[in-house]
Structures are given as C-alpha cells and as structure tokens.
C-alpha cells in the first residue's frame, strides 16, 4: 500500500512540476507556485488529496475499461443471459473499508492544517492590519503603526502578518492565491487570518465573493518587501504631510481643485482613518488605478471624468461636481506626485 | 357517473385536457415540456456567459447584465430545469414501477406542477420588468437585501411559489411510495429508481422548509423593513448562508439521487443483470441522504466559523465519499459479467461513470478545509459542481429520457441522433469544464464578468467557451431527435428493452388507469422474475374489477394563477400601495379556489369492469 502511494505521489509531483514548468498560470497569481505559508500548506494538502484521488480514479478506470472490453455484447451472443449475481459480501466490504482508509489519509493532515492556519497565538507580537472590503476596493489600516492605505498592501517578507477582515457593505472575500487561501470579509464580525510571504514581490489579490457589478474588478496587490524596506516605508508613510505643496504649478492647482471639489470629503491623504473612499496617501506609487487599470495620467483623467464606465456600480460616480478635462488633468498631476516613499512596487521587483 | 371515454377533438380540447389533468403521466409530460423549456433558457444564459468570457476584458455584455445572467443561469438550471425534469421522470415512472394506478394525491400533483410553472414564469418575467435578480443563485445577504430594483424580489417570490409546488410533490411521492405499492412489493423489492425517489422525497420534505423560511425572512427584509440579515439593525448576514445551505446542500442530493436510480435501472437492464449489491445500494442511498443534511457548512469554510467547525464539517463531508464509492463499484460490478448493449441510454450511463468519478473525487478534495481556502469561490468549484450536476444529473436525465421515452410516448428516439447528441455533449462537456479546475487554481474566481489580459487565463477560457458550443450543438441535435421522432408514426411494444421492472409489463404508452389488475410482485425485478419462469406478463394480484379514477380539475391552475398575480402585488406594493389590490385579488382567487375545493365533493368516477374487458377485446 505504502509503496503504491509513494509511487503515485511521486508521479503526481512530477506531473505537477511539469504543469508549473509549462507555465501553469501567471506566477504571482497562481496557487500552483506557492510564495507564502498559507498557499504552501494548502498546496501540500491539495497534492495529498489529489494523489489519493488519482489512485481512486485509476482503479475505477481500470475496472471500467476491463468491463467495456470484456463484456460488450458480441455477435452471435445476442440472447446470452448472464448469471444473475446478487452481490458479494467480501468485495463490498473491501470497497467500503479501503475508501475509509484513504479518507483517513486525507482527513488527518486536513485537520492539522486547518488548525495550523487558524493559529492566532502569535497575533499580539506581529503586525496587525485591519482590512476592510468595500464596493469595490480594499482599505488597509496598520494597527500599531497607525498608517492607512488602500489597494496596495505592503508587508515584510518572512513575517507573519495578521489581517483582521471586515466589510463595510456586502460580503467580500480576500484572496491572494500565491500567498494564501481566502477568507471572507463579513459586515458583522471580524475574521482573522495571517499571511506570510517568502519572497519579495508584487502578488495579485482578488475579491472572491460576488459583491456587485464590479466584483471582477476588485483587484488589489500585496507588495512584499524586505523587513528593512518595510520599516523604511512605514516611517515614510507616517511622515506624510497631507497639506504639503506639490512642486509643479499644475499639481498645485490640482491640489486646490482636489480640496474645492470636496474630493477630500471621501478620500483621505495621510493617516487620518476616517474615509469612505480609498486612502490616496501614496497614490503616485500605486501599481494600478482602481485596482485594475493602467497607472498613467490618461487613465486617471478618464476615471475622473467618468468612473462608472471604467468600474460599473462604483460609489464615486455622481458624488462630486462635474469636472472639465483640464481640471481632471490637473487633479491627475496632483495625485501622481503623491509619492511619499522610495519603497515602491519596483523595490519588490516588477509587477 | 359516466364511464364512457369521450374523445374530444381540436387543439382547445387538447389544451384544456392538459390544463385540468390530474393523470400523473400527463403531468409528467407537462413537467418535461416546461422543464425542457427552462433548460433551453438556462442554456442560452450559459452560452452568453461563455461568449462574454471567450477573451480577456470582453465587453459583449455589461457588468450588471452579466450578474443577472449568471444568477438566472444558476437559479433556472437548479429550480426550473433539473428538478422539474426529475419530477417529470418520477411522475412518469414511479407509480408504474411500484404497480400503482395513480399517485396518492392526484389533485396535489397537478397543483405542484402549476405552482412550479407559475413560480418559474414569475421569476423570468423579471427580464421584461426592469431587470432580473443579480445577487447570485445563493442570494447572499447583504448583497441580496441591498440590490436595487426588483430583481431579487422576483427571485424571492418566484422561488417561494415554485418551492411550495416542489414541497407538495415531495410529500405526494413519499405517501405514494409508502402506501400504494402493489401486493408483494416490499421495501426491499422496490426498484432502485423508486428507492432514490423515496429518499429524495424525504430530503425535499426536510430541506425545502429551510428555503421557505429563509425566503420569507429575505422577503421581510426587502419588502417590509425588517432586519434579519442587516448587521446595522442587529441582524446577521451569515444566518442567510446557513439557512440557504441547510436547504442548498441537500438540494444537491435531491438532484443527484434520482439519477443514481436512473443509472441503476439503465445499467442493469442493458447489462441484462440484476443490480449488484442491491441491499448495499439501498443503504448507500439512505446514508447519502442522511449525511447530505449534516455537511452544509462545507460551503462556508471561508466564512470564519473557526478551525473546529471547519474540521468537523470537513471530515463529515469526506464520509459521503464512502457510500458514493460503494455505488460506483456496485455499478461496475453490475456491468461485470454482463451482456452489455451500448445504445444511447447506455452511452450516457457509461459516460457518467468516469465523469462522476472525477466530480466525486474533486468533491473530496474540496472537503479538505485548508485546501478549500484556495478552491472556494474559484473556477475549481465551478468545475466541480458542473462535473456533478451536468456530468451526473444532466447525463442521468438524458439517459432516462432515452430509456423511458418509449414508455412515455410509445416511440423510440432515433439511435443515430441519440449517439451524436451524446458524443457532442460529452466532448463539449469535458472541454468546457475540465480546464476550469486549473483556471480556478490559477487565480480565476467564479462569477467574474471579465478577466484581465496577461494573467495567464486566456487560453483556458477560450477552450472552455469552445466546449460550450459543442454542448449547445449536442442539445440542438437532441431537439431535432425529439421533433423528428414525434412526427414519425411508430408502434412500440410494451417492453422494447427486455426490461426487468413493472413499468415494462404494461403497454407503451400505458392506459390512463395504468394497470388493469394490480400485479403480484414476487421478487426484486418482478417482470424479470416472471420472464425467467416462462411467463410474458405479470400474474395479477386481484380479479378484474371496477377502477376508481379521480376527476380532472381546473382548480390547481386557478390557485397557482392567483398566487402568480399576488406575487406581482407583493413585489410592487413597495413602490405603490395600490398594488396591494393585486395581492388581494390574487390571494382571493387562490383562497377562493381552495374554498371551492374544500366544500365541493369530488368523488371521481369508476371505469367499469365491462369497459376494461372490452378494451382487452
């Protein structure tokens, strides 16, 4: 039995390796190439269960093929009446007991892994981030560090980072496949999970629970940087002066427009926690506009002029005065220069 | 009462006959037609989904419309296609298999159908009245409680009405199977299809009330300002998930158990062997039904129930694999040593075995909670449940239709077209869904309106869409087959497949009273028992006598129409209280019809012995 299992596991490992080598998905998105602890635990469990299940499928297919080859009606035997067997106790016991054993092989590591991934004994000594799901963006609030940001979540590598997930409206689900499995953000209670990234990088995260028209556009990024860079980033974020004057004239006008058109009513800059829209502190360093769009001036202008077209059902549309293209362009200039830190997604390696 | 069988003519009379019928065989036709129609609508919605996802960042349909399509695809396929078609099959077959002249409550049977149909029509009316429901077929709160427009209201009332019909059907068949078996048909001599319908009916009896309650709470939240699922008012949205899945998980078994029965019948008939391990099959069925109620929270591993709850539900879920495995191997051993005829019905059964094995094994994989954190709400899950529901339920429905078509309509479906249907559908199915296991783990969540370019998801989605076209082509070939067969003149004997169970002992299609004399059942596969002893027919258990039959009635149609009208009233009274008129009118019609039913004696009529003898020549 053991030998068989070993062989199948080896076979599976080899074939899954083949899948990976042949490019099974984008490497900072796929769950096949774990870059973090949760994803690794899940993948191990996937491999164990898949190996057992492939064994089952093979057994079924062998019997099935034999049946089809041996017992199809043959010419000249149309009237043959087979023996009417009632059953076979021994056989039936065998295919009751063997599956039970196979299931135990899966069940034991499942329970272990489930408790392992729910372990919150180290939560006190780690970084704690409150994650809030909103239609259709993510807010991140670093508890001890007292900094706020959205869409791009910075974490240090090789560190357990605890996330306290909640939703401000409907149910969302936080998923970064290559780092960890998902956890729902419910409106009534806080769910805790931890993530740990092994390598520096920009990992793609998605909302996995249907949350409205732009459910499929509710992407975010997890940016894993070295612990030193992370410290630097935290300091830079803390030191942001929300009122700071931009350098260029156009951006300065943009800043004025940003205040006048009450953008600031919803979007905070700096670490003020209360904001109904995404926090824009380090907007200039973000990888994407609204989570999914190219991060360039043209897109931002388009966004400001007509957000509903780019992200249907979003809550910004219709909640601010109409802007002219020129005004939008100035605001875009202002937003793009919000770059408080040297630590950017580029520091973590390319997207 | 008159006993003369009058033959009215004309389309109006034909239509009237079907609207008022209480004959389970005609109700079966109605279920098949209505369920088939909804199957086509649900299939069309599926095609729109796959066309939208043929390439990254496609703009074939808008985001809001996409959510409506995906919600209606799921809702339609589960509630308005798969279940009604199964109800059609059980209406057509179960009374015949147990040697009964009718179901226990023929009036209720008709009412169940009309409620389902009017509920389905109400739900689909939403397309033309400002937008369909868009919160997913699971309608998770608060998305469903806050969804603008009336889409979700249509979902609530449509499902409430049609769910009531389903519950009635379940109760009816439970009583029928318990009370109306022919002499000698003990529980352990019941054909497996009847057994699975029995267990299914029990599941309906216990699962649907959970849905009814959930839908009422949702209705109060949306229409009358209560806050059961609203956290800001002290409610809890996770409660909806529990209520929904306490219904929703057994629902999966309500769908799959009957087709397990179908495959058991088809495989033993065309292998010419009795079912291997009949007793084990029965106990496996009961066990699956029981466990089906114990595992609902495996849909909620990521909700945050904690590791203890997740572990318990994980292990309980895995346990279901044991009885299911027993079934798979018993089927294989039924075929083993047999003399297998491979025709259309058998092809679907043979296609089912490997397909369902894959679906079942991915089910065990999903049960591993910590691994499910990756699968959950991804295309892996989409692949899994389509492997089970299409590879199991739809394959089973096709097998059953090809198998029982001659019994129901007196004609055999064309074999060549039948095989073509199978191969197109089978290949298309695996093309569509196998790749989705990988798409899920490659980071594609379910219910995505668009996927972005350059995320490694393009090829998989393209292949998937191509497969969907094959499935559509297969379905079209099946339709052609049905139409060309129905226009053909053909006479089929009572027993075209050399069958084993009671339904094959009477003419095809059966007389409206089913059995002239109730048969005497002397073992499992009663007809086969008689055949092996050299007889061609069942030994009767009673002398020829008068047969009591129920009268036709328009009341079920009227009641359902009343609820249908009231449904609009409930939905629109939120905007304008004058719509309450519709509530009163509709409920008045429904309650009035109930009153008439209660006070008017309806004793039915008798078919006299002499007429039966005349019929027999």
TrEMBL record, chain A:
It catalyses: 4 Fe(II)-[cytochrome c] + O2 + 8 H(+)(in) = 4 Fe(III)-[cytochrome c] + 2 H2O + 4 H(+)(out). The keyword Endoplasmic reticulum does not apply. It is an enzyme of class 7 (translocase). Gene3D superfamilies: 1.10.287.90, Cupredoxins - blue copper proteins. Its cofactor is Cu cation. The chain crosses the membrane at residues 41-69, 90-111. It comes from the Bacteria. Its EC number is 7.1.1.9. Residues 124-236 form the Cytochrome oxidase subunit II copper A binding domain. Keywords: Copper, Electron transport, Heme, Iron, Membrane, Metal-binding, Oxidoreductase, Respiratory chain, Translocase, Transmembrane, Transmembrane helix, Transport. InterPro entries: CcO_II, CcO_II-like_C, Copper_CuA, Cupredoxin, CuRO_CcO_Caa3_II, Cyt_c-like_dom, Cyt_c-like_dom_sf, Cyt_c_oxidase_su2. This is Cytochrome c oxidase subunit 2.
From TrEMBL, chain B:
It is a multi-pass membrane protein. Gene3D superfamilies: 1.10.287.70, Cytochrome c oxidase-like, subunit I domain. Its EC number is 7.1.1.9. GO terms for molecular function: cytochrome-c oxidase activity; heme binding; metal ion binding; oxidoreductase activity. Keywords: Cell membrane, Copper, Electron transport, Heme, Iron, Membrane, Metal-binding, Oxidoreductase, Respiratory chain, Translocase, Transmembrane, Transmembrane helix, Transport. SUPFAM superfamilies: Cytochrome c oxidase subunit I-like. Pathway: Energy metabolism; oxidative phosphorylation. One of its GO terms (cellular component) is plasma membrane. InterPro entries: Cyt_c_oxase-like_su1_dom, Cyt_c_oxase-like_su1_sf, Cyt_C_Oxase_1, Cyt_c_Oxase_su1_BS, Cyt_c_oxidase_su1_bac. It catalyses: 4 Fe(II)-[cytochrome c] + O2 + 8 H(+)(in) = 4 Fe(III)-[cytochrome c] + 2 H2O + 4 H(+)(out). CDD domains: Ubiquinol_Oxidase_I. Residues 10-522 form the Cytochrome oxidase subunit I profile domain. The keyword Zinc-finger does not apply. Belongs to the heme-copper respiratory oxidase family. This is Cytochrome c oxidase subunit 1. It comes from Radiobacillus deserti. The gene is ctaD.
């Amino acid at each position: 039995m053991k030998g068989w299992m070993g062989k199948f596991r080896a076979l599976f490992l080899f074939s899954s390796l083949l899948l990976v080598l042949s490019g099974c998905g984008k490497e900072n998105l796929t769950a096949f190439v774990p870059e973090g602890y949760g994803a690794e635990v899940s993948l191990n469990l996937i491999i164990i269960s898949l190996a057992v299940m492939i064994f089952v499928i093979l057994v079924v297919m062998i019997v099935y093929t034999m049946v089809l080859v041996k017992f199809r009606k043959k010419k000249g035997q149309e009237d043959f009446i087979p023996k009417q067997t009632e059953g076979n106790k021994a056989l039936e016991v065998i295919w009751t007991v063997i599956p039970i054993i196979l299931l135990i092989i899966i069940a034991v590591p499942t329970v272990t892994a489930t408790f392992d991934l729910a372990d919150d004994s180290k939560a006190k000594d780690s970084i704690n981030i409150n994650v809030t799901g909103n239609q259709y963006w993510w807010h991140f609030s670093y508890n001890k560090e007292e900094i706020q940001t959205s869409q791009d979540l910075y974490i240090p590598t090789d560190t357990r980072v605890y996330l306290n997930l909640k939703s401000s409206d409907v149910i969302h689900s936080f998923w970064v496949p290559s780092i960890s499995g998902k956890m729902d953000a419910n409106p009534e209670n806080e769910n805790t999970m931890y993530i740990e990234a092994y390598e520096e990088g920009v990992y793609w995260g998605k909302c996995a629970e249907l949350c409205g028209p732009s459910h499929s556009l509710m992407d975010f990024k997890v940016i894993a940087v070295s612990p030193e860079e992370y410290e630097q980033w935290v300091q830079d974020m803390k030191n942001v002066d929300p009122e700071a004057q931009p350098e260029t004239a156009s951006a300065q006008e943009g800043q004025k427009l940003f205040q006048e058109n009450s953008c600031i009513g919803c979007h905070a800059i700096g670490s003020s926690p209360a904001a109904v829209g995404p926090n824009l502190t380090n907007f200039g360093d973000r990888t994407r506009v609204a989570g999914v769009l190219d991060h360039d001036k043209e897109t931002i202008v388009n966004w400001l002029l007509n957000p509903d077209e780019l992200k249907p059902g979003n809550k910004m549309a219709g909640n601010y005065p109409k802007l002219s293209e020129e005004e939008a362009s100035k605001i875009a200039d202002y937003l793009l220069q919000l770059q408080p830190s040297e630590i950017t997604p580029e520091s973590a390696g390319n997207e | 009462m008159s006993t003369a069988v009058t033959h009215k003519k004309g389309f109006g009379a034909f239509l009237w006959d079907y609207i008022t019928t209480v004959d389970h065989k005609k109700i079966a036709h109605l279920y098949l037609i209505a369920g088939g129609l909804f199957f086509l609508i649900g299939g069309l919605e599926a095609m729109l989904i796959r066309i939208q996802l043929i390439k990254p960042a496609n703009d074939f349909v808008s985001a809001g419309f996409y959510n409506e399509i995906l919600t209606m695809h799921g809702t339609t396929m589960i509630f308005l296609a798969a279940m009604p078609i199964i109800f059609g099959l059980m209406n057509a077959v179960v009374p015949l298999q147990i040697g009964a002249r009718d179901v226990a409550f023929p009036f209720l049977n008709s009412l169940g159908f009309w409620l389902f149909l009017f509920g389905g029509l109400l739900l689909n009316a939403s397309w033309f009245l400002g937008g369909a429901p868009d919160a997913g077929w699971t309608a998770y709160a608060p998305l469903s409680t806050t969804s603008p427009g009336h889409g979700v209201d249509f979902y609530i009332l449509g499902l409430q009405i049609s769910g009531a019909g389903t519950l009635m059907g379940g109760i009816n068949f439970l009583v029928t199977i318990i009370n109306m078996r022919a002499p000698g048909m003990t529980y352990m001599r019941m054909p497996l299809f009847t057994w699975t319908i029995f267990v299914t009916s029990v599941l309906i009896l216990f699962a649907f009330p959970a849905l009814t309650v959930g839908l009422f709470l949702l209705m109060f939240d949306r229409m009358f300002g209560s806050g059961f699922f609203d956290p800001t008012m002290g409610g809890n949205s996770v409660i909806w998930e529990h209520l929904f899945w306490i219904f929703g998980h057994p629902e999966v078994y309500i769908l799959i158990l009957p087709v397990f029965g179908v495959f058991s019948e088809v495989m033993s008939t065309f292998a010419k062997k009795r079912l291997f391990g009949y007793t084990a099959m029965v106990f496996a069925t009961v066990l699956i039904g029981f466990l089906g109620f114990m595992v609902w929270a495996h849909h909620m591993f990521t909700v945050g129930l904690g590791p203890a709850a997740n572990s318990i539900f994980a292990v309980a879920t895995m346990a279901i694999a044991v009885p299911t495995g027993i079934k798979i191997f018993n089927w294989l051993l039924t075929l083993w040593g047999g003399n297998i005829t491979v025709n259309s019905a058998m092809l679907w059964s043979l296609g089912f075995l490997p397909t369902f094995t894959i679906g079942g094994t991915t089910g065990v994989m999903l049960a591993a909670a910590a691994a499910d954190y990756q699968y959950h709400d991804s295309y892996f899950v989409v692949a899994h449940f389509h492997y089970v529901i299409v590879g199991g339920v739809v394959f089973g429905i096709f097998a059953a239709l090809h198998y029982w078509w001659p019994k129901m309509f007196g004609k055999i479906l064309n074999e060549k077209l039948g095989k073509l249907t199978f191969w197109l559908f089978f290949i298309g199915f695996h093309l569509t869904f196998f790749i989705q296991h990988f798409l899920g783990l490659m980071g594609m969540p379910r219910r995505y309106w668009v996927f972005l370019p350059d995320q490694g998801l393009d090829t998989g989605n393209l292949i998937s869409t191509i497969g969907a076209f094959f499935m559509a082509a297969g379905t079209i070939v099946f339709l052609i087959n049905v139409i060309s067969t129905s226009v053909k003149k053909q006479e089929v004997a009572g027993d075209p497949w050399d069958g084993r169970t009671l339904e094959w002992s009477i003419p095809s299609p059966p007389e409206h009273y089913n059995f002239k004399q109730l048969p005497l059942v002397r073992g499992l596969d009663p007809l086969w028992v008689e055949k092996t002893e050299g007889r061609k027919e069942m030994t009767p258990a009673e002398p020829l006598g008068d047969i009591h039959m129920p009268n036709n009635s328009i009341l079920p149609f009227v009641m359902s129409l009343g609820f249908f009208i009231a449904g609009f009233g409930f939905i629109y009274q939120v905007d304008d209280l004058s719509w309450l008129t519709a509530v009163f009118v509709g409920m008045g019609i429904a309650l009035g019809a109930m009153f008439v039913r209660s006070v008017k004696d309806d004793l039915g009529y008798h078919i006299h012995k002499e007429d039966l003898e005349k019929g027999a020549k």
